[in-house]
Amino acid sequence: MKKPTLLFLVLLTTVVFEVWAQHKDASILILSRNRLGKATVVDTSDVRVYYALNADSLSNQDTYVDLRVLEVGSKVTKCSSEFVREGEEHQKEILKTWKLNHPHADGVPRPHPIHGKRSDYWNEIQYTDIYIEGETATEYHTMPHGFQGENGYIVSQYPSQNWTLTDDTATVLGHQCQKAVCHWHGRDFEAWFAPDIPIRRGPWIFGGLPGLILKIYDKDRHYTFEAVSIKRGKQPIIRYAYDGYRKGSRERYLKLNHDLNAEYKNTIGRMGGMMKNAAGEWVPSSGGKIPYEPLELE
User: Is 188 among the domain residues?
Assistant: First the structure.
């Protein structure tokens, strides 16, 4: 089999960028994260908490933007996307079967979209893995196809919220919860934590309350995390090597995430993406803005 020529690789790259430049929400494929590096067991979780993100109906996963899982161990806590994990495992099975049945094929099937009501969107929350060790949180940001050279991580103090407790109570997932509020990274948040579950953690990088956070949202309700299941039993916590990920600043990744969501075409153009104009000529891609509200403003 002949090796691909440089011209072929260039054309393939421009075609990929052309597809991605058309629309941010145009059947974006699940990210291939086979370059995350070696997987290592770093701890064992005793509790796993599953949170629906922006669900229309808590009883229907197809209405979630994401399903986050919080794995709580004695030394390490991990927060990641269950939808992405399931999608990756499903894709491995598809590729394994395809290769067995088509040993001489040059190509492979397109990746299967992940679950959820916006499975054809790239979502920076879905593609961020967070590890908490002691008073340190490390966030690994995986960028979409064509931007994987921008993969990186942020290290910050944990927890970083300054909470004010209130006397308000509510029942979440069968637990009597107390309300706490804070202003964090440019937004006002309300959290409901369960004092009867003595775990000072929550979804994303929220934590530090005297009980597990079962529900949290910003006051404008752009983002709502709500626990839908708590599972007990020992399970390994896996951490990847995240090969090639570079340490960066929160400001840098907030800006990059914003640009990829709100001005996708323009961002591709700035980073070398190309598309065809009306005359069929290859030119830097461009496009208008898309309404976008980030979880963190600063």
Answer: yes
Assess if residue 165 is contained within a domain: yes
Q: What Rg, from alpha-carbon coordinates, does the chain have?
A: 21
| Of the candidate ranges 5-19, 204-218, 268-282, the one whose mean pLDDT is the lowest | 5-19
Query: Residue 155 and residue 150: Cα distance in Å, rounded?
Result: 16
CA distance linking residue 232 with residue 161, whole number of Å? 27
Render the burial of 176-209: b for 16+ CB within 10 Å, e for the rest: ebbbbbbebbebebbbbbbeebebbbbbbbbbbb
pTM of the model: 0.79
CA distance 189 to 181: 6
- Which residue range is the domain that position 250 belongs to? 30-259
User: Do the domain assignments include residue 297?
Assistant: no
Domain count, the chain: 1
Residues 6+ apart with CB under 8 A from 102: none
